[in-house]
C-alpha cells in the first residue's frame, strides 16, 4: 500500500497559484505579458503602437481584415494570444472586423470608456493589456449574442486555418 506518499503531493495544486507569470509559455491566453513602453515602441510599427498601446482607432474600411472571410484564428498583434476566430466573425459593414464573441471569455478584458464624450466598453487583450477596440450591444445584428466586438485590424493578426505556418510576407490576396 502506498497511500502515505500521496497526501504529500496533494498540495502541489495549490502551489500553482504562485507560479511566476513569466513561467507561462508564450502565446498562452493565460500568460501575462508585461513590457515597458520603450519595448512596445521598438517591437510594434508606429500604427500598431498607436492603436494597441495608445487606444487609437484605425480609419474604417482601411484595415486589413474588415472584409476578410478566411477561416482561422485571430491573435493579438502585440503578444500572440488567441483572441477571436473566424467562426464568430460577421459582416457588420461598419468598416472594422466585427465578432459577436471572443474566442473565450477571459482572453479579453473590458474597461468602461467615457472618452470622446461617448459611453463605450473598451476591449483589451487580457494577456498584455493592449487595446483592441470596443464592444457594442443591442444593435440588432442577427447574431447569437447581439453584440459587436468592433476590433481594429491592426490590433490582431489572422492565422489562416489551412496554413498555420505563414511562410513569408508576400501574401497578396
Ligand atoms: Zn496581447
TrEMBL record:
PROSITE patterns in alphabetical order: MSRB (PS51790)
Keyword list, A-Z: Metal-binding, Oxidoreductase, Zinc
Pfam families recorded: SelR
All residue ranges annotated as the MsrB domain in the record: 37-161
EC number(s) per entry: 1.8.4.12
Highest taxon above the source species: Bacteria
GO annotations of cellular component type: cytoplasm
Gene Ontology molecular functions: metal ion binding; peptide-methionine (R)-S-oxide reductase activity
GO terms (BP aspect): protein repair; response to oxidative stress
Cofactors (names): Zn(2+)
InterPro entries in alphabetical order: Met_Sox_Rdtase_MsrB (IPR028427), Met_Sox_Rdtase_MsrB_dom (IPR002579), Mss4-like_sf (IPR011057)
Catalysed reaction equations from the record: L-methionyl-[protein] + [thioredoxin]-disulfide + H2O = L-methionyl-(R)-S-oxide-[protein] + [thioredoxin]-dithiol
PANTHER family linked: METHIONINE SULFOXIDE REDUCTASE, METHIONINE-R-SULFOXIDE REDUCTASE B1
UniProt protein name: peptide-methionine (R)-S-oxide reductase
Organism: Pseudarthrobacter phenanthrenivorans (strain DSM 18606 / JCM 16027 / LMG 23796 / Sphe3)
